[in-house]
Amino acid sequence: MKEIPPQKARQGKKGRPVLIVLISSLIIVALVWLGAEIYGSHISESENIMDSNTNTKQSMPD
Fold first, then answer.
1. Rounded distance, CA 38 to CA 30, Å?
2. pLDDT tens, 3-24?
3. 2 versus 49: which is more confidently predicted?
4. Minimal CA–CA distance to 44: which of 32, 52, 33, 34?
5. Is there a domain that residue 10 lies in?
6. Of 3, 22, 40, 57, which one's alpha carbon is 20 to 30 angstroms from that of 9?
7. Which domain holds residue 35?
8. Sequential DSSP letters for 1-51
9. In angstroms, rounded to a whole number, what is the distance separating the alpha carbons of residues 37 and 35?
10. Is 3 left (phi over 0), alpha (psi -120 to 50) or beta?
11. Dihedral, 53, 54, 60, 62 alpha carbons, nearest 10
């Protein structure tokens, strides 16, 4: 079997670029999650306001 030097046998550079991609993707996911949480809480607050307005109108006699 032919002996290959370790420097030529490598598939790519050391793991820094992969680490940067992983960390940046985790940051992006965290930002998207935060945006979804804020949007979800805003939607639930406006639904509560609409529900309370609807209940008030229905309970009032005509």
1. 12
2. 888 777 777 666 678 889 999 9
3. 2
4. 52
5. no
6. 22
7. 24-52
8. -----HHHH-SSS-SHHHHHHHHHHHHHHHHHHHHHHHHHHHHHHHHHHHH
9. 5
10. beta
11. 120
Instruction: Give a yes or no: residue 30 inside a domain.
Output: yes
- Which phi-psi region, left, alpha or beta, contains residue 40 (left: φ > 0; alpha: ψ -120 to 50)? alpha
29 within domain boundaries: yes
**Length of the chain measured in residues:** 62
How far is 22 from 35, CA to CA, in rounded Å? 20
d(CA 24, CA 17): 11
Q: What is the pTM of this model?
A: 0.54
Round to whole Å and give the CA distance between 48 and 40.
12
**What pLDDT, on a 0 to 100 scale, did the predictor assign at position 44?**
78
